[in-house]
Amino acid sequence: MKKGISIIYILVIILAVFLVAGGSYYAGTQRKSKIIPLPTPEPEDLVGNDRDEHGCIGSAGYSWCEIKQKCLRTWEEPCTEVTTAPTVDETATLKTFIKNALIAKHGSTANELTISVSKIEGGFASGGASGEGGGGMWFAAKVDGSWQLVWDGNGVILCKDLVAYPNFPASMIPECYNEQTNKSVKR
Question: What are the C-alpha distances in Å from 12 to residues 2, 5, 19, 20, 115?
Fold first, then answer.
């Protein structure tokens, strides 16, 4: 009898396995797949769809370069004019200007002066003028692309001479003399 019960148990287990496997198969074939489509993004929402009036894609780092007439990334290619012509020697230009300005201010004797440029810092410059009778210093500023003589001489620089040049570097002219207070003023 034990052998008969063992066979029944084995048959019941095999039947249960077949029922579970068959049910799973049947359920899988009867299930309809539900694919939910994602909404299509509007064209203006697409990454890279932010072209400007020149066609440059700002979100990709491109901007219009008027000089080169193209879109470019300024960290990869600078937007500067490429020139094959030699650049102007600013020191030589400044020396010529200062000599002419001193001649205009002090007369033709200034034509004998030797002009030196000590420092050019942005649109500001300093230097000296020397000749047989001595020498002095000068300061100049570039205004609208042209150099202007701000001050020249041997003495004290008056604060009123610097009023038109409020951004003149204090590293070049650290102090000036205020005639109203009769005191030196640290800039």
Answer: 15, 11, 10, 12, 116
Identify whether the C-beta of residue 147 lies closer than 8 Å to the C-beta of residue 113.
no
98 DSSP assignment: H
CB 118 within 8 A of CB 127: yes
Beta pairing partners, 24: none
Taking alpha carbons only, the member of 134, 137, 126 closest to residue 165 is 126
Q: What is the pLDDT of residues 145-172, one digit of tens each?
A: 899 999 999 889 999 999 999 999 999 9
Whether this model's pTM surpasses 0.70: no
Tokens of 46: 């697409």
Provide the residue count of the chain: 187
| pLDDT over 60 (residue 86) | no
